[in-house]
Amino acid sequence: MTNPPPRFDGFPSDPDSLNRILEWTRTRILQGPDPRNGAQTPAALDARIGGSITANGMDPQAAFALFSDVIVPSTRPFNHPTSLAFVAAAPTPASLAFDAALGAAEIFAGNWDGGSGAIHAENQTLAWLAGLAGWSKDAGGVFVSGGTMGNLSALHAARMAWVNAGKPRPDRFRILCSEQAHSSIEAVAQVMDAEVVKVSSDETGRIIPTKAQEVLAHTSGVFAIVANAGATNCGAVDDLRALADLATQHGLWLHVDGAYGLAAMADPALRQQFDGIERADSFIVDPHKWFFAPYDSCALVYRDPIKGAQAHGQKGVYLDTLDQAAWNPSDYALHLTRRARGLPLWFSLVTYGTLAYGAAIAKTYEIAQQIADGIENMDGLELILGPQLTVILFRPRAMSAADLDDWAEAQRRSGALLCLPTTWRGEKVLRICVVNPETDPDYVLEVLETLA
Ligand SMILES: Cc1ncc(COP(=O)(O)O)c(C=O)c1O
Predict the structure, then answer these.
(1) I need a surface site. Which of 80, 201, 268, 371 has the fewest CB within 10 A?
(2) Per-residue pLDDT tens over the stretch 391-432
(3) Taking the CB of residue 405, how many other CB atoms lie within 10 A of it?
(4) How many domains is the chain partitioned into structurally?
């Protein structure tokens, strides 16, 4: 008995269902998201899309309506100019439109054989980033899903470089970083069964290099230093030159976590903040943060990519037919199958040109400066820190922590502003991080007036 043919017959035999998706995609790219959208409870979602997976399927247009009318409105619109919490997103229209095409192209970009054209273009983008850091053409890497995976892949390569160099294995491997380092460093250390040694930071959140020196003098097993290039909570950029000196002195790998901040290398006026990065061993920067590209994408770059390959290259008999001498992106991080997630940034850079990127970064920096100035001049508000890159910390002079939460939630629900509290030096404060050149500083200040 033979099996019946697969019944994938409702789509796209009805051309309207494909057109509906394409038309929605087009409108969404041109109009952007609704800032009032947000999370729903599982019960509310179940009431509308529970039971949608059935034995016989449903009409494709009705299925797509579940996405457009229920799923999308139940998500937070980070790429709206009023989204100033966490590190939001601001993908260019070119990058979004291109990403839809990239999905349709279904390129396997894990190895050269599967995705040479796409990989070559991704590598051009990585070379541009490496050039901004002052690295040579020998540098290279890969785009991974996000900063967490980038940090993990870089730090695994760092430890393997230590082991491959024949250095003695300590009782415990350790990673040194600032107390302001992103939570992913702690998560990565847990995966690696390593320990994080945190060094105190100054009043602006920058690591204190003399303290790092002291810690290194009496701590064994440190194989890498992680520097902040735009600490998430406060925007601080560590003194990369001082950390490079320490790394050289102690024979350590220097990894720069610039998931958010290193995009500012594209603005010549901000580039000097990262002086010293030319001496690092690896860095990451997320195009989906401040580089105007869609989720999900993190550029991981090694100064010497062979060290990445020595750590990550996978071997398997079914892979033996692949050309090992070719540039296989799967060799440079913890993954095998991958989409060419660096291409939306490539397409956007190719379309608008690198000067537009520098200008967009400069504009967001100016917007953050205008918001900070406005906060400083508002009677009821106290500017605590910033802008450091585009992060601002501030608080209303007379408002309880509970009222602050209520205010933030009311703004979020109405779609006026996504501006959430954080903790700074033990106190609840408000935090703004601007990554969208279309954020209107006057509008933001108008909303903040309701706090004063
Ligand atoms: C400095 C920094 N490093 C790492 C990460 C983790 O990146 P991802 O969320 O892409 O995994 C973030 C995320 O905000 C970050 O700001």
Answers:
(1) 268
(2) 999 999 999 989 999 999 999 999 999 999 999 999 999 999
(3) 13
(4) 2
Residue type (1 letter), 146: G
Distance 356 CA to ligand 1 centre (A): 24
Q: What is the C-alpha separation between 115 and 97, in angstroms, rounded?
A: 20
Which amino acid, residue 78? F
Q: Is the CB of 144 under 6 A from ligand 1?
A: no
Among 336, 354, 372, give the residue marking a domain's end: 354
C-alpha R_g of the chain: 24
CATH number of the domain within which 422 lies: 3.90.1150.170
CB within 8 Å of 39: residues ≥ 6 apart: 74, 75, 76
% of the chain exceeding 70 in pLDDT:
100
**Which of 175, 182, 298, 433 best tests ligand 1's pocket when mutated (most atoms within 8 Å of CB)?**
182
Kindly give, in sequence order, each residue whose CB lies less than 8 Å from that of residue 333, ignoring residues fewer than 6 positions away.
Answer: 141, 142, 144, 149, 150, 153, 300, 308, 312
Q: Which atom of ligand 1 is nearest to the CA of 286?
A: 10
DSSP tag of 83: B
> DSSP strand E in 56-214: where?
140-144, 174-178, 195-199
User: What's the pLDDT tens digit per position in 26-42?
Assistant: 999 999 999 999 999 99
Q: What is the DSSP string of 312-370?
A: H----GGGTTS-TTS--GGGGSS-SS---TTHHHHHHHHHH-HHHHHHHHHHHHHHHHH
Ligand 1 atom at shortest distance from the alpha carbon of 148 = 11
Q: What are 229's strand-pairing partners?
A: 237
List the domain range (segments joined by +) for residue 237: 98-354
260 CA → ligand 1 middle, Å? 7
C-alpha–C-alpha distance, residues 194 and 186, integer Å: 9
Q: For helices 147-164 and 305-312, give the axis angle rounded to 10 degrees.
A: 90
Same domain, 302 and 371: no
Distance 285 CA to ligand 1 centre (A): 9
- Which among 184, 345, 391 is the best mutation to test ligand 1's pocket, defined by most ligand atoms within 8 Å of the CB? 184
Does residue 440 share a domain with residue 416? yes
Q: Quickly count: other Cβ atoms within 10 Å of residue 107's Cβ.
A: 18
Q: Which atom of ligand 1 is nearest to the CA of 150?
A: 11
ω before 344 within 30° of 0 (cis)?
A: no
In angstroms, the CA 343 to CA 297 distance is: 10
Q: Please tell me the number of Cα atoms within 13 Å of 204 on its side-chain side.
A: 14
Q: Determine the atom of ligand 1 nearest the C-alpha atom of 260.
A: 16
